[in-house]
């Protein structure tokens, strides 16, 4: 009897030790993977804070060599270009997100309504755009030749405003609203538009917040539309400005304002990158849980 | 997305209890027959007017380009426009498939996407299982943040990151190579390394997103299964092997199939910005999307670009439909439509 008890205790202890070791291993691996993901970020921030001459001599290092904020001062000393790009991106992001949310949710609501007679055909109309698209060439020709939107700020906004994927996610959420509330409002004589804005929208804040954030990051991070349609450098959004700077490394050196100063191209370039992803990263850190919720709604769970 | 169908089915099957389905008599005007009585007509009209802006935008930016795809069969002249340009049958395609580029871009697109799908699936599953083990810990939130943030960094910025690692003179990797007393590598002139570089960049970017989806799948598995296994004496590894993975199989298969449906579409930003559109690297980094862009915007070979674009849209459509057909056979609820 006592023998079995001892054996049980030892096996229990062994199980505990194993579980402990297992947990330790899990946390070690996750920490290592997580830190590896951070390395590029650390590297770029370090370079942006490094001394230009030492960078040229010693190369890029994971930690700042000769800590200095000169690269940032240099960029912000002649900030017209970057401020302008910030302005363009801020306008596109704000306008695009608000308008996109409005149009997408207005399109999603009838699709969520069982009593809408055109629900079937309209669902197909929205959904088909996920399966087939005309590709870059007709799109390019349409926008440049037929719509005449080249170098127009709205070309950075309009094409992304309706995204079938977002519409379908919003519709899923709308379809789960309790119908009693809507019926009650209808009996009180509220029209469809009023029901939408005064009942549906306030009740759907979580999904609208999630999709809104997707819109924000989509517009903030977009370079594609500018790459195709923007030639006028006063209308460059931030990401596209960064691409141009990368493609043409000497563009900063060619800036007439900077003559007579040491030009920190090595560090300034990375400082530009930091200034461009900083706000997006900050938004993400603040609102991470909404993204996770959005992905799980949009991905597989309901 | 996937559960759209389920909702649809639930939504459409029960008849409306409020009697909107009354049979319309033939004497009623046509519109009333279509939209029911006056109240219903008003409701439907309001709903239609709500969806109108979306309908118009989709028509302009999605449907007009679909129609414009006929440009692949025309000799496009800017002054004549799409409709006015002359039909040339399959000449653009003969032109495209007469080049080496056609084979190269098809191969690169397919192979790189296959590499992306396999590496992402394996790594995301591993991470999701580990995250599930650590789910109750306080650290879990931090792991998720560290893995997930790259998803929100655009490829333009990633190209700066990659440049910081790889550039010939000052790049971090070459500093390490120096420290090890090895020969420096000219990364931006050596196409053979780029499949690995692109796979790593793609993993870094997408791993957080994919592992969260799989984690949601694991969290959805009934805890009773694990309890029962524990009582039967199954260890962690056995639980993973005999419960977690089998329960995730449908999800893995479906996500993989859906990815295969998109295998003809490459991530333009990844392939365009990271190799910095460098001709020396085209042999491994040029994909259909970058080829179309270059032909269209940089070289002005619109016919070539149109043919390649049509090739991509057409084969891509067949693949999506085919993949969806297979998904339906595996599990109807997960099909796209």
Write up this protein.
- The complex is a heterodimer of chains A (302) and B (337).
- Chain A has 302 residues and is mainly alpha-helical.
- Chain A folds into two domains: 2-58; 79-247, MetI-like fold (Orthogonal Bundle).
- Chain A is 74% helix and 0% strand.
- In chain A, helix 4 (80-112) runs antiparallel to helix 11, helix 5 (119-131) crosses helix 8 and helix 13 (238-247) packs across helix 14 (265-299).
- The radius of gyration of chain A is 27 Å and the shape is flat.
- Chain A starts with a helix and ends with a helix.
- A two-stranded antiparallel ribbon of chain B has the order 1-2.
- The longest helix of chain B has 34 residues, at 100-133.
- In chain B, helix 7 runs antiparallel to helix 10 (194-219).
- The N and C termini of chain B lie close together (10 Å).
- Helix content of chain B is 68%, strand content 1%.
- Chain B has helices at residues 4-12, 30-35, 38-67, 81-84, 91-97, 100-133, 140-148, 155-166, 172-179, 194-219, 223-231, 236-261, 268-273, 282-285, 288-298, 302-330; strands at 74-75, 86-87.
- Chain B has two domains: 25-89, no CATH class; 101-334, MetI-like fold.
- With 337 residues, chain B is mainly alpha-helical.
- Classes of the chains: A mainly alpha (302), B mainly alpha (337).
- Chains A and B meet through helix 1, helix 2, helix 4, helix 5 and helix 6 of A and helix 1, helix 3, helix 6, helix 7 and helix 8 of B.
